[in-house]
Amino acid sequence: MATTPAEKTSVAGPGLKRSLSLWQAVGLSLALMAPSMAANINPQGAIGAGRAVPLAFLIAAVGVLFVAYTFARLCQYYRHSGSVYAFVGATLGPRAGVVAGWGLVGTYVFYAVTTAAAAGIFGTGLLKTLGVWKNQPSWAPVIFVGVVLALALLLAALPARGGTNVLLIVEVCTVTLILVVTVVVFVKLLSHSAPGGSTFTWSVFSLGPGTSLSALFLGVVFGFLSFAGFEASSTLGEEAHNPSRDIPRAIIGVAVFGGIYYVVVTAAEMMGFGTSAKGIAAFGSSPSLLGNLGSSYVGSWVGDVITAGTTVSAFGCCLACTVGAARMIFAMSRDSFGERGIGKAHHRWGTPAAATGVVTVMAVIIYVIYVIVSSSPSALAENAFLWSGTIGTLILLVAYVLATVGMTLLVFVRRKMPSVPMWQVIIPVAGIIVLGYTIYRNVYPYPSGDAYWYPIVAGGWLVAAVIAVLVAPGTARRLGAALLSREGISR
After folding, report:
1. Rounded mean pLDDT of 458-482?
2. Cα distance between residue 235 and residue 173, in whole Å
3. Structure pTM?
4. Which positions ≥6 away from 285 have C-beta within 8 Å?
5. Averaged pLDDT score across all residues of the chain
6. Rounded to whole angstroms, how far apart are CA atoms 82 and 75?
7. Torsion angle of alpha carbons 107, 220, 281, 378, nearest 10°?
8. Predicted local distance difference test score (pLDDT) of residue 81
């Protein structure tokens, strides 16, 4: 039987303490996936699919399950605190690992802006609903998004971790309330007592008249965006009690839960608003999908509580993305140029403060560009959410493809895990097809309007990494070798 890198290094010396259970691993993935925030706004990004938004999320859920299989197998072989970029570096080589790492930086930075925009949308809507700030000026979302982003960037540089438990508790409570509202919506739909005469219909899983396949797969991108972070428990390989069992279970379990949750909730949202042209328009313009449904189907206080919870969830996700981007830049700089400059931790806080500063500059540049090109201040939050969400997800899909290709080579070509049946190769192949087709449909037919720039920005971000590893191959090899050494992973 083949010996995995984990088995070779499991008794090599002291390391991270194995103290985490299966449920703690699940908790990390759920916290970063932020299902309450995602279900409350991401479906609006898929509005181009019309009534078929739940179908777009169903397709994304299937694709995520294929990707989950990839991470489950990688975590069984590499039982270490790895990431997409470590796994790609181990299976496809350091250059590919650098490209995947830089891609993850881009995903995290764009997602930080996306989630700050979501917090801005929810926050301003909540203040207006509660009567705290009724007559909001057009620039209100600009200020709110800016404050959220600045606060998240500040906290990312500080060693304050106690608040994460509070964020997780709020997330669990909000998701529970969302599920209660979803049940109430379905009960009223089925009993023909829903507001506005809405009824239960399976048509939400079929394309409406005039909706193209390309529009559907543009919506699938926001389905994948909703799952972002589901694989976070893959970084806990050195801290779980039984990593070869618990981490794969956590990854698969969160993917399955997310798939059922998002498909059911988005179906309730679309049916709850109604599948008519008027209902779809109301769905797309709602400041808080589940907040509005909670208010109309249950009571106004329920809607307000959900909106407040999803605002906190959006902020927590923005903070997590900022932390992730900063630590990725810190690690790449440290492994390339040593512990100085960006690759040096703050002497007092012990955090990558300088790297967080770089993330701050990146996020501010992106945000300022959005302020400049947005047609009006009132449209800024929606634009920031839609633009950054799409760009970040397109980059992430490429990283997922690289990880899936690497796992396929490791398990089914090099046969490093001979106990895995060969017929299972159809799973990663199917995953590559779903991921690849989603990317393809986002570039062909080539989109127009604002969407014209999404593939250009996403592609430009990745091309910059490709050029860097070609121009400076020595640095790329040194970074890749240092990464694999630090992660305890070898090819």
Report:
1. 85
2. 25
3. 0.89
4. none
5. 86
6. 9
7. 10
8. 55
